[in-house]
Amino acid sequence: MKQSLYDGKADVVFFLDEPVRSTGLCTESLLQEPFRLLVAPNHPLLQWEELLPEHFQGELFLLNEKGCTYRTLFERSLAMDGIDSSIHLEFSSAEAIKQCAMAGIGIAFLPEIAAATELERGEWIALPWAMPDLRVATQMLWHKEKWLSPAIEAFLETARTTLRP
């Protein structure tokens, strides 16, 4: 996506990632995106008041495709806690991950924004597991040297006022 800015194919891109640093792009972080581990309401991990790393051993994780930035961050976070994430199913669709988790197939790892509606309806439960080293933000990026039309400037301002808390 960043390459499309350099190639002039896009004026602005939105990126869900670790903070992007670039000398050729303007980057603006709009909001931090919390992530959750989500399970069906009858999942065995819900029996524990406090989860320990060993509770996750042998569990099936429902993850985005390899190469997805937040999957890489998640796997790194698990490794730091001594949790093996090698047992997983890989999906290209957040909706497929959601449906499998709600059906009790495994543990979904998704941004809270993608899980909010189903959480409110009680279709799944967020596990009490903190990942303080996982910092992901929704960011706007645009080419530093590109002229921004008044319409693009207005769009950027609308995005700022709409997406910032």
TrEMBL record:
SUPFAM superfamilies: Periplasmic binding protein-like II. One of its GO terms (molecular function) is transcription cis-regulatory region binding. It holds the Pfam family LysR_substrate. The keyword Isomerase does not apply. Residues 3-163 form the LysR substrate-binding domain. It comes from the Bacteria. Keywords: Transcription, Transcription regulation. The keyword Transcription applies. One of its GO terms (biological process) is regulation of DNA-templated transcription. Belongs to the LysR transcriptional regulatory family. This is LysR substrate-binding domain-containing protein. It comes from Paenibacillus elgii.
